[in-house]
Design brief:
This protein has 323 residues and is mostly helical. The chain has a single domain (38-153, 190-322), classed as NCX, central ion-binding region (A middle domain of Talin 1, Up-down Bundle). It is built from ten helices and four strands. It has helices at residues 2-32, 37-62, 66-91, 98-121, 127-150, 169-200, 205-230, 234-259, 275-298, 303-322; strands at residues 124-125, 262-263, 269-270, 273-274. The strands form two sheets. It has a two-stranded antiparallel sheet with strand order 1-2. The protein has a two-stranded antiparallel sheet with strand order 3-4. Helix 6 (169-200) runs antiparallel to helix 7 (205-230). The radius of gyration is 19 Å and the shape is globular. The protein starts with a helix and ends with a helix.
């Protein structure tokens, strides 16, 4: 048992340091090119912090483990929103520019609603759906790039960093790449050892995916959020969560479905109904509505959102292991 504990601690250390490098690199690039931090968070940073989910779900798909592939993506969205974003909002609520918030939010709800509707009606995801989600991912990245180029003024208010000797571009890119690699490797160490423990206790694969694996692969977002808050970049943290949630549908699930189409897991039921269909998917949509709708209307986040989302995550986790 000593080796798993040591690997767990090593993974945690890699996540902390990798998050520090990743935030430094991404913020440096955002300021260098006068790009809004929220959009950087919703694109570049989100891809980096979603790498663990991509790797875990793809590996599970290759092994025909639908419970992990499905649970990891849905569970990560719930965790990202009701734990990670919730902590960010509860600790430091602030203003959000609806212009930069609108695109990733709209893409997320379109993708998530289509995902949920297929699950509710067909109960199975086919390969063409996986390919379609991957195409949506490409389209989102193109539109995000166009938006950043057409609206450079959005970064004006955010680009208040002291210009006392910016780092060379190659150092910022290196920090971004090395940070992403450290985050992915650290998350892998935590996921592997955490999954072994959960499996030894006889927990179903779908529950492992929704909780242990989802939390483990969401640790990069959590570390990035904490690091961003500590460095005063709340917009980067929030953008990272929104972008990561979108990528969990169109990139993580898209890749897993393309590799190995699967049916919605039905290992856990409530009164004869599939728990995933009446609890997991509705909760995924509900927590994102709580997070996204108020700032889209008022342009600011409220501490009450963070508290409410944290309560939802606690209830969800207790339900998964107790019921």
């Amino acid at each position: 048992m000593l080796v798993p504990v040591l690997l767990f601690l090593l993974g945690f250390a890699l996540l902390i340091k990798g998050g520090d490098w990743f935030v430094d690199g991404s913020v440096g690039i955002a300021h260098r090119f006068h790009l809004p931090e929220l959009l950087i968070g919703a694109t570049v940073v989100s891809i980096g912090t979603t790498l663990p989910e991509v790797m875990v779900s793809s590996q599970a798909a290759l092994e025909a483990n639908a419970g992990i592939s499905y649970g990891n993506a849905i569970g990560s969205i719930i965790c990202n929103t009701s734990l990670i974003a919730a902590l960010t909002v509860a600790i430091r609520p602030g203003r959000v520019d609806p212009k930069t918030f609108r695109l990733p939010t709209a893409f997320f709800f379109l993708a998530a609603l289509s995902y949920a509707l297929v699950a509710w009606t067909a109960g199975r995801f086919t390969r063409w759906m996986g390919v379609a989600y991957l195409c949506v991912f490409v389209g989102y990245m193109i539109l995000s790039t166009v938006q950043m180029k057409k609206n450079p003024e959005l970064a004006a208010e955010e680009d208040e960093e002291e210009q006392s000797g910016p780092k060379p571009l190659w150092r910022e890119l290196l920090a971004l790449v090395v940070g992403a690699a450290a985050i992915a490797l650290g998350a892998r160490f935590l996921v592997d050892n955490g999954t072994l423990i959960a499996a030894a206790l006889g927990v179903p694969d779908s529950v492992i995916g929704l909780t242990m694996v989802a939390l483990g692969t969401s640790l990069p977002e959590l570390i990035t959020a904490i690091t961003s808050l500590a460095k005063g970049h709340g917009a980067l943290s929030l953008g990272n969560v929104i972008g990561a949630n979108l990528f969990n549908i169109i990139l993580v699930s898209g890749m897993a479905i393309t590799i190995s189409p699967f049916a919605v897991p039905a290992e856990k039921t409530i009164a004869g109904f599939n728990s995933s269909l009446i609890v997991d998917l509705p909760l995924m949509l509900a927590v994102m509505m709580i997070l996204c709708l108020p700032p889209l209307r008022s342009g600011k986040m409220g501490r009450w959102q963070g508290v409410l989302l944290l309560c939802a995550y606690a209830a969800f986790t207790i339900y998964q292991f107790v019921s």
